[in-house]
Design a protein that fits this description.
By secondary structure, the protein is an alpha+beta fold. It is built from five helices and 16 strands. The chain has a six-stranded antiparallel β-sheet with strand order 7-6-16-15-12-13, with no helix packed on it. A five-stranded mixed β-sheet has the order 1-2-3-4-5, with helices on one face. Strand 12 and strand 13 form a beta hairpin.
């Protein structure tokens, strides 16, 4: 495996997924500690990366110190779909690097045709949304073990993470079930989950933000929205970056951190009475 950290740039060229994940855990935290406002990570020299291995990048890029820096990551085309699926283009700047052909020559006419045909989408991300005040953020936890990957979702659930509102389960009343305690909370208009009042459901867990996520009713469907929490909200294993419609059986995980690799709390949304 080849991994180098120089100035503000980390280059990882791993020969296996195990080496790749190990390099991310070992070197990315060091990259974030460097005194630069913008940092770069290049993984174009790494072999094919599966979606499971990709999750080790995803959690690193959106949490902790990474959220306070401008991050540019250069990726091979093979993982572009993962970044788009997880909406990471909204959080970091991504540069998709297309390798040169074996003969070292580029067919300009073919490239132009591909661009005009929409094969290559623009890869530059919009500016990051403003971060909440520091007083509104939960303290960042430190621990020797690395962050665990987000809970893996099935292919069907991953597709539902960006489903349109008309695909949501429609009902007059919804219920948020605390998986650990089995407690059911009725939702008729809206409910806010957080670490302290004025949140409606309070969980005094340091990694949960004061106002972490909200479920609200719009027309006859329910939407979930992350309130720019420090440690994130995940719907069926994918981070929530904008309001998303809910369906029966959806799993909601909050605050995946070093101390809580499976999430500080797990909920299930349903519209079915007991």
């Amino acid at each position: 495996m080849s991994a180098s950290l120089r100035w503000n740039r980390l280059v990882i060229a791993a020969e296996s997924e195990e080496e790749f994940i190990s390099a991310v855990f070992d070197y990315f935290p060091q990259l974030l500690q460097l005194p630069y406002e913008q940092v770069e990570m290049d993984i174009t020299g790494t072999a094919e990366i599966s979606e499971d291995a990709f999750r080790s990048i995803a959690l690193k890029l959106i949490g902790g110190e990474a959220a306070e820096k401008k991050v540019l990551i250069r990726i091979p085309p093979s993982v572009d779909r993962y970044f788009r699926h997880a909406n990471l283009y909204r959080m970091v700047e991504v540069d998709v690097v297309h390798p040169l052909p074996a003969n070292g020559k580029v067919d300009a006419a073919k490239v132009k045709a591909n661009i005009q045909g929409g094969k290559y989408a623009a890869a530059k991300a919009p500016a990051k949304p403003p971060r909440p005040d520091l007083t509104d953020q939960a303290p960042v936890e430190l621990a020797p073990e690395p962050v665990a990957p987000a809970p893996q979702a099935s292919a069907g659930k991953q597709q539902r993470a960006s489903r349109p509102v008309d695909k949501a389960t429609k009902a007059d009343v919804g219920f948020l079930v605390d998986v650990e305690s089995g407690t059911r909370h009725e939702i008729r208009s809206s409910v806010m989950i957080g670490r302290e009042p004025p949140s409606d459901l309070v969980y005094q867990i340091p990694t949960i933000s004061k106002r972490h996520f909200q479920i609200r009713k719009e027309a006859d469907a329910f939407m979930i929205e992350d309130m720019r929490s420090t440690n994130g909200t995940y719907l069926n294993g994918l981070p929530v970056h904008e309001p998303v419609p809910l369906r029966d059986g959806d799993e909601i995980v909050v605050a995946i951190t070093l101390k809580h690799p499976k999430g500080a709390r797990i909920f299930q949304f349903t519209t079915k009475p007991e």
